[in-house]
Each structure stands twice: as C-alpha cells, then as structure tokens.
Amino acid sequence: MENASNRSGRQVAPTTCRLDDIAEFKRNTAVTFGVFDGLHIGHQTVIDTLLKRAAHHQLMSVLISFYPHPLAFLAPERCPPLLTPLSKRIEILQQLGIDKIIMLSFDAQIATMSPEHFVEHVLLKKCSARQIVVGYACQFGKDRAGNAEKLVELAKVYPFGVTIVPPTEINGTPIHSTRIREALTRGDLRCASQLLGRYYALIGNVIPGEGRGRQIGFPTANIDTHGQVCPPNGVYAIRAKLDGQHLDGVLNIGIRPTFDGTTVQIECHFFDFDETIYGKSVEIFLIEKIRSEQKFPNPEALIQQIQRDINSAKKILTETNQQPDRLR
Fold first, then answer.
1. Which of 39, 50, 146, 294 could serve as a FRET partner for 252 with CA atoms 20 to 30 Å apart?
2. Collapsed DSSP state (helix, strand, coil) of residue 112
3. Domains of the chain, with CATH numbers?
4. Beta bridge pairs of residue 11
C-alpha cells in the first residue's frame, strides 16, 4: 500500500492499512503504539517523549494508531463514541512532527496476537524498533495480556529499550479519553478543552435539512457527525473551518421542540455566510455554551431568542482570540 506525503515530507498512510500491507522498515526506529483517541495532553506527552528518544538515538520516529477502536471489533456494544475521527487524528499527528504514522486496522490478525508475537512481528520485524515508548497504562496483545511491565521484561530478551511515560495529571487525576468523554457528556467544555489542549471539535458532512432555518431568516447547515461524542442539547458559540475558510457562528444541538421535533439534529448558522455547501466537510470548534435547549410559544419568540444568541456568540468570540485548532 503506498503512502502519501504531507507537506513536511513525512509519510502518512491516507487510510487504515492491514499489517501485511506494511513493508519492513530499512531504518531503525523509535516506536509508540495505541489507540490515541482524542490525542489529549497525556498522548502528547507520550509523543513528545518519543520524539526526544528518536532524536537522542538518531532513530526514525514511528507511531502506530489502531483504527477503529479495538472494542469496535472485540465488543461493539461496549465501544465508546470517538473523540477524533480518522482525518483529524492524522492532521494532529502531522502537526506534532512524527516521521512515520501508521493507521493500523484492528482486525482478527491483530486481536489474536500474543504480546510476544506483537513485539516480535510488528515492532521488531516490521518496524525495526530499537526504542519503544508507551504510556503507563499501555495494554496490548490478546486479552490485553501485555502491558508496560511486560515490555520491560521483553527488553531483557530483545534488542530494544523501553521508556514508560508516567501519567499526566490535571487536578490530581490522570488524563484519559474516558475522562474527556465524561466531561463532554455533562457539558463541561472548559474541562474537555483543558484535557485535550485545544477546543473540542465536531467534524462531519453537511447534509440536507428541512430548510426551516432559512424560512425564519437564519439559514443553517445540518451536520452529520457520524456518532462522534456530542455535548448536551443547547446553543453554542462556535468557530468553524470550511474549505480553508474560518467562520464564526452559533450551533444548535437538539430536537427543535418549538416545531415538535423528535430527533436530535446538529445545525450551524454561520455569520455573514449564505453558500450552498451540501456534501462538504466542516470542522466545528465548540467555544462556549450559550444556553440549554428550550421550547418557545411560537416561531416569533424563537426568532427573537436566536438574535439574542447571535449577539451573545459574537461577544464571546470577540473575547476569544486564540485560533481554535492550535495545539496549546
């Protein structure tokens, strides 16, 4: 499988690949591996350690990310919703400066490997690993039998060194993806942003809606986020990226109770923007919640509230100067 180069010259697989698609590396490497959903501050600490080890030992830095989430294969009913779709995960990894990014499909071949086989076949044979960097809670191999301590044991037998990165903590608690999902689910955008090191973003395609927003004077883009984690229903001040443009606006998540809706929809109204964008991908950064969803007695009352929401959003966004996609 051929890889596409990004602008920095580093190589990245454009989609997931199977293990057999990976050619054996000709250069020794420093490797880390894991799901990396969210690519939060804890993940970034692991990656920073990887880059330092690679530079110190004059090795190529390699990151293996499993996609989809292993539970999507092993136990779909327990698989959590994603924080970072594949395209966003690759984009962030490119920003962090890794030499080689491998998006490895988590399938039966990977799921049934013992920890020893994973190390021998994937890390050593395929990736020519001489340094392995993992987080303290690393688990790998069939039935998650492998962990950081297992890697230390195997390093006594095989020719590689191991670095175990301790937990990155905020408020005395380790950062992990579950903690971010919980923060988003309860609507704590500030906490989620702090743990991620950036504003949380919903990413999806613009799909046709009922056109009700345009009818009341506020055209909206309906977004299909493909099951990504969403905060509670309500209205949010947002910044967005669309076709290279940066747009400000308001986002509504909810069932539209004023019109007796029953299904949750995600709708954006962008300021000073009225283009047809069906089918396009948009990235929506959640800056701050304005209010919870509520039912209004009539459309006129809703229109008045939307204008107030827009005024609130503009004030919030004027006070927020940071580029939303910049890693902190």
1. 39
2. coil
3. 4-172 (3.40.50.620), 200-318 (2.40.30.30)
4. 5, 100
- What stretches of the chain show up as alpha helix (H) in DSSP? 41-57, 70-74, 86-96, 108-111, 115-117, 148-154, 177-185, 189-196, 212-215, 299-318
Structure tokens at 72: 């999507």
Predicted TM-score (pTM) above 0.85: yes
> Which DSSP symbol is given to 219?
-
| Per-residue pLDDT band at 211 (split at 50, 70, 90) | confident
**How many CB atoms are closer than 10 A to CB 245?**
11
Distance, first Cα to last Cα, the chain: 34
Q: Look-up: residue for tokens 């909206």?
A: 220
Coil/strand/helix, residue 120: helix
Strand (E) or helix (H) holding 67: strand 60-67
| CB proximity list for 209: less than 8 A, separation 6 or greater | 220, 222, 265, 267
Each residue's pLDDT tens digit, 138-166 = 999 999 999 999 999 999 999 999 999 99
CA dihedral (131, 56, 61, 70) positive or negative: positive
Contact 50, 135 (CB under 8 A): no
Query: Whole-angstrom Cα distance, residue 310 to residue 328?
Result: 27
Q: Give the residue among 220, 227, 314, 224 at the shortest CA–CA distance from 269.
A: 220
